[in-house]
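During the no-cost extension, the postdoctoral fellow (Dr. R.K.) reprocessed legacy sequence entries with the updated structure-token encoder. One reprocessed record is reproduced below for audit purposes.
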Amino acid sequence: LAPGSRFKAFDTPLGKIAIVICWDTAFPESIRCSALEGADIVLVPIWGGNEEQVRMAARANGVYVVTSSFDMKCMIVNPLGEVLAETFKNLGTGVATAEIDLDDDTRQPYAGNFRSYMKRLRRPETYGPITDSVK
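Re-encoded structure tokens follow.
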């Protein structure tokens, strides 16, 4: 096994899905890159983590995020950052289920279709420091 060099989304019968594994969620670029690859849903197998960070990542990128965790709640989070379903923390068992609609065009007064809002208003030309090599 070796680390990959990019985050990729895959076409499936359910929609376009990406996988971001555990520690990758500590870096906002991982879910952002998955969203830019066209992911509708980002699956996150994770040992532990920060529930607020997962909710924020879903909202900031306009994607559904589904976690499967050992010591964090397993959650299904919608593109607005709202938890649609969750399990209890630290039980090690349980199933969270929710029906999602990838064609939902949830409207916000200031943004229009929220799922595409973040993509429409991005300004990548200002992100140079993010892509500069670490020295």
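The mean pLDDT is 83. The first strand starts at residue 9 and ends at 12. The remaining legacy entries will be reprocessed before the final report is submitted.
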